[in-house]
Design goal:
Blueprint lengths: L23 E7 L3 H15 L3 E3 L8 E6 L4 H20 L4 E6 H6 L2 H5 L5 E3 L7 H9 L4 E3 L22 E5 L1 E2 L10 H5 L3 E2 L2 H13 L4 E5 L7 E2 L13 H5 L2 E2 H11 L4 E5 L8 H9 L6 E3 L7 H6 L6 H14 L4 E8 L6 H14 L3 E6 L7 H5 L6 H24 L5 E9 L6 E5 L5 E5 L8 E9 L3 E9 L4
Parallel strand pairs: 1-2, 1-3, 3-4, 4-5, 5-6, 7-10, 10-13, 14-15, 15-16, 19-21
Antiparallel strand pairs: 8-9, 11-12, 17-18, 17-20, 18-19, 20-21
Helix pairs in contact: 9-10, 10-12, 13-15
This protein binds 5'-deoxyadenosine and iron/sulfur cluster.
Amino acid sequence: MEKIIDESAQGKPLILEQNQENKRKLFIESYGCQMNFSDSEIVASILAKEGFNTTQNLEDADLVLVNTCSIREKAEQTVRKRLEKYNAVKRINPKMKVGVLGCMAERLKSKFLEEEKIVDLVVGPDAYKDLPNLIEEVDAGRNAVNVILSKEETYGDISPVRLQSNGVSAFVSITRGCDNMCTFCVVPFTRGRERSRDPQSILSEIEDLVSKDFKEVTLLGQNVDSYLWYGGGLKKDFDKASDFQRATAVNFAKLLDMVAERFPKLRLRFTTSNPQDMTLDVIEVMAKHQNICKYIHLPIQSGSDRILKEMNRLHTRQQYFELIDNIKKIIPDCAISQDIITGFPTETEEDHKDTLSLMEYVKYEYGFMFAYSERPGTLAARKLEDDVPEPVKKRRLAEIIELQRQHSEYRHQSFIGKTVEVLIEKESKKSDQHWSGRTTQNTVVVFPKENYQIGDFVMVDIKECTSATLLGEAVEYSKNN
Ligand code: 5AD
Ligand code: SF4
């Protein structure tokens, strides 16, 4: 499962260069994970060829698209609130058309058209290439739906437009879908079976980004470690591959090695890793290349073996510890972050304590923590009662968040007095006199601007920290500039 991105980016309309010949206006916004944001760039690219320029102004739009998330009930409620807002605008401008994209479109399908009368268009994550036809239908006054999940679609042949980009970091998707079937998770139902993208198209997309002076690329997938290219086809059908396909197959370690080797000046990240699929080869490739960032997002979800089993996580607490030990042995300064769910059905106080003790062992740099939210259609929803009372979920969540805050502070304090390399990404949110960037460990560093520029690699002396940020002063350009 990939990371939910920065709260401040959620729901911001995406803007791309205006083409004078394009007459229609598209307002497109995204919620949820990075994959959705990345998909919206593909959608904008497809629609730019169909005569649409993007707009930041909802009131001006001919077409409003919202890329949606179903991961938790709250994510869906946020989208429903947005739909109410579009409805208000549509009352003033009845010609405006509204389309729902992404996971909620896939989950609710044509029900959307019945339940939400203002929706004209419903398009699932594998059907974006059909948008031109679907929009034609809508223009002719008919509602349009395409929620067919594909076995092949990777959008490898579409070069996404970089929307709202800082020109420094970009995301490149390498897999789509997920075969893991964690029992709490709606993603396998909304994003379909796992498929990997052709390595050549990945390399050429990165080549293009490098030629545009991008400095950092994050390889993106629900489960990147499970990347496997053998000339097309689903991951689950690899058993049927020919000898030649097997001999020439590219797994994640190989892909990472290829990209790092080919673009030695590019900072390389990836997300998300799944403990059961992460191999020692991947960790060794990370150690081998200076340009692969020393950071792994490694969701655990629960520290209890019994709950991990109920979640169908396919690894034990002990195996997770062994993986952590191997990472720390091979890459001692590697940062690790987590996703944890509290209050999964049947979770006892004992299970919760197992999660806290696992956190004590790992001392994650940071984490993303959630109260369990039952998702219709998932295995957990079908088989288990959502029986942990809401106040108990909330209390456990608060305990986990507080422990994580302490661990983040502990990790950050270890940087005080050190000099770290930072890639400058943007102005600090709190001060226009300061830059904000990240270390290889993905820790945010804020420091006075001086004459440095966005996109520079600089060496920064760390003076202070909070549980979220390191504060320092730049001392010189990094030799990696
Ligand atoms: N309830 C709460 N959190 C969930 N996640 C996934 N499904 C659910 C759910 N039903 C969390 C997991 C995942 C992260 C992206 O979202 O921790 O790793
Ligand atoms: Fe991630 Fe598991 Fe959901 Fe797949 S099923 S997206 S691995 S949480």
